[in-house]
């Protein structure tokens, strides 16, 4: 079992690699516009290419003399992969990859999530109003999905998370689920976390921080959407960090929207970096010491995401510039999530 202390600052999220359709912009550039070509074999091959690059990048970091574990910029050499039951076949892809490469559980950090069932049957376009995934935060769903995750990734899992906890799903009040999660931690040695979504992310985080089982905090980590556009959860993330929770950031590029943002493009040109590097550096420069998931779907995108250290250091040394960039990009949470909800699966 790998300790959270060795979890790297940047990992690979499998949301856009484990299934043919997702809401990230510009997927046609990588996968083409003919959805029928996005077969299971094609997506697994693409996943393997990106995973290969992840391990190569981490190996390079391990060999580099520039890695300073004692500094605030801990770009650990340990590969970190984040899956979910609803990310299509992500758990299957990752499990088969790790075993085929004979990778030890000590040499990788794997997190996954339960709470959504993937129902799109590997299709991109569905009948009108048909969902790609269905949320169910009942204890029965947890017990079912934890077994499924175990069958694909059991020996590799380090962290298991509630997928998109909300007040409406009732999971924050479901004592049966809380005890089942705590029992999972005791029986399997997995850390327990939650991911959050919606304009209420900050409120959900604060509510989750109060949940205890046998006088122990239930959650070891929180995975939250935070980026240059959506900054509202920042204070709640700082509180969670102060409490000792690991902070994991998803959608750091706002599903690709940030890459087209004129302000981000202007500042990245000014700082001689790529827009993705600026966006991720802003997150990594925050005082709540987040870890960030890359949503890359090509080796080149992942490599660019990893080349963020110098930009982060520049922003940490120039806090007035950091504040200037953040203030120029932020939008109200309600606006951010409304625009996200309007993104088409493609």
UniProtKB/TrEMBL annotation:
<dbReference type="InterPro" id="IPR053135">
    <property type="entry name" value="AKR2_Oxidoreductase"/>
</dbReference>
<dbReference type="InterPro" id="IPR023210">
    <property type="entry name" value="NADP_OxRdtase_dom"/>
</dbReference>
<dbReference type="Pfam" id="PF00248">
    <property type="entry name" value="Aldo_ket_red"/>
</dbReference>
<protein>
    <recommendedName>
        <fullName>NADP-dependent oxidoreductase domain-containing protein</fullName>
    </recommendedName>
</protein>
<feature type="domain" description="NADP-dependent oxidoreductase">
    <location>
        <begin position="80"/>
        <end position="256"/>
    </location>
</feature>
<dbReference type="InterPro" id="IPR036812">
    <property type="entry name" value="NAD(P)_OxRdtase_dom_sf"/>
</dbReference>
């Amino acid at each position: 079992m790998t300790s959270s202390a060795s979890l790297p600052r940047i990992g690979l999220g499998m949301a856009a690699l484990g299934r043919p359709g997702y809401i990230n912009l510009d997927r046609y550039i990588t996968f083409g516009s003919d959805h029928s070509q996005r077969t299971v074999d094609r997506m697994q091959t693409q996943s393997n290419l990106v995973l290969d690059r992840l391990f190569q990048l981490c190996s390079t970091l391990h060999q580099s003399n520039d890695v300073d574990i004692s500094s605030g910029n801990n770009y650990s050499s340990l590969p970190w992969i984040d899956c979910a039951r609803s990310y299509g076949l992500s758990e299957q892809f990752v499990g088969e990859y790790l075993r085929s490469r004979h990778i030890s559980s000590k040499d990788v950090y794997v997190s996954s999530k339960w709470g959504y069932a993937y129902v799109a049957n590997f299709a991109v376009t569905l009948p009108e109003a048909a969902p790609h995934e269905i949320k169910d935060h009942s204890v029965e769903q947890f017990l079912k999905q934890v077994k499924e995750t175990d069958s694909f990734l059991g020996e590799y899992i380090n962290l298991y998370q509630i997928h998109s906890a909300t007040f409406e799903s009732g999971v924050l009040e479901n004592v049966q689920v809380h005890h089942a999660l705590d029992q999972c931690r005791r029986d399997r040695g997995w850390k327990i976390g939650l991911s959050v979504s919606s304009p209420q992310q900050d409120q959900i985080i604060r509510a989750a921080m109060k949940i205890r089982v046998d006088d122990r905090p239930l959650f070891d980590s929180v995975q939250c959407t935070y980026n240059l556009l959506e900054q509202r959860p920042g204070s709640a993330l700082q509180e969670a960090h102060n409490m000792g929770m690991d902070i994991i950031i998803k959608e750091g590029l706002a599903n690709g929207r940030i890459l087209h943002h004129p302000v981000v493009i202007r500042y990245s040109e000014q700082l001689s970096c790529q827009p993705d590097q600026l966006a991720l550096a802003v997150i990594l420069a925050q005082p709540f010491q987040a870890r960030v998931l890359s949503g890359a779907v090509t080796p080149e995108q992942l490599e660019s995401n990893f080349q963020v250290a110098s930009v982060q250091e520049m922003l940490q040394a120039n806090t007035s510039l950091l504040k200037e960039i953040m203030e120029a990009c932020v939008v109200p949470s309600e606006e951010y999530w409304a625009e996200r909800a309007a993104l088409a699966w493609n």
